[in-house]
Amino acid sequence: MANSPDPDAAYFAAMAADDAFGVVIKAGAYIDHELIKLVEATVLAPKALKQVPLDYAGRCALAVALGLDDRFQAPLSALGKIRNRLAHRPESLLSDEDAKNLYKALAGLERTMVHENFAKTLAKRGQKERRFNDEPALDRFVMIAIVLRSALVVARMHIERVRPMTPPRGRDDS
To answer: Residue 5 and residue 76: Cα distance in Å, rounded?
Structure first.
């Protein structure tokens, strides 16, 4: 599929915007999409999921129930709450407190990844080192959202490698 757009490039372009409202809404949509793909990769009959009424919180819980490390539950939930608040109260802004709470919800490994990616980004741009926690709320939100989405993509890819999805005999659910 040489002509198909690169989903990572589209995601990173969306995360590079200056509009906090749009970035938060799109980050939530991209992460929700990855949750759906992750859940579909873990079940034998993915089409049957269309009959199960799940919202974002339900998809997060189901992903954990199906094997996603439970350390992702808190940050995914925190991101969903920020996204919902902005979506349903457009006068709301992404606050410093939102970014702090999202960061606090991360497990140690993801916090380390956020700091490492932040340092790499600064180096790539030729900028001097700075403290991540001193960055604007939107920049911190974006870095955390990138790490969360990346973790979901890696988890799904691992599942697809370990357990290639083939429907049970006599069943075509692809």
So the answer is: 26
